[in-house]
Amino acid sequence: MPISLRGGFYGGLAVAVCVGLFLLWLWRPERQVKRHTENFLHAIEHKDWTAAGNFIASDYHDQWDDDRPRVLERMHEGFRYVRGLRITALSVSVQCQQRRAQWSGRIWVDGSQSEVMELLKERVNSLPRPFELEWHRGSGKPWDWKLARVSNSALEIPADAY
């Protein structure tokens, strides 16, 4: 069955519309922030500090007075002795406004049994409040989101913890 010029045109147009609709769905800010957070937590699980660093904005600053280099150093040092780390986000919600987004959710950690993992589970899994991650969109690209701030009012980390 030969394809006519008109049939080819309409077929191509239908494919282009489907791809366009898919990209609109994929690039929604809420979806992008959820995916970025999942990928950020996945990078931490696998101790891929380069990948984790790619998600953190250069002007990052958190409630524990960490900037970007300090938080990467703390993650590297803090997870050095943790094996088989698994991080799960629960009860996630995302609020987007213009070029900012607020991700909120409980974070649950688990992993191979060790003293460090037990301490980490005790401190993180028992938190009564969710973590809040503030994401900023860096450019006009719908996928260009960077982590600008992390907070959890119930979690206290002493400045000399590491």
Q: Give the termini distance in whole angstroms.
A: 71 Å
Look at the helices and sheets and give the structural class.
alpha+beta
SSE pattern: HHHHEEHEE
Strand arrangement across the biggest beta sheet: 1-2-3-4
In the CATH scheme, what's the topology name?
Nuclear Transport Factor 2, Chain: A
CATH architecture classification name: Roll
Specify the number of helices: 5
Shape: elongated
The helix content is: 40-55%
Low-confidence stretches: none
Give the tally of β-strands. Answer: 4
What's the number of structural domains? 1
Strand content: 15-25%
At the first level of CATH, the class is: Alpha Beta
> What Rg, in angstroms, do the CA atoms define?
20 Å
What's the helix and strand layout?
Elements: H1 5-26, H2 29-45, H3 49-55, H4 68-78, E1 86-97, E2 100-110, H5 115-125, E3 131-137, E4 145-151
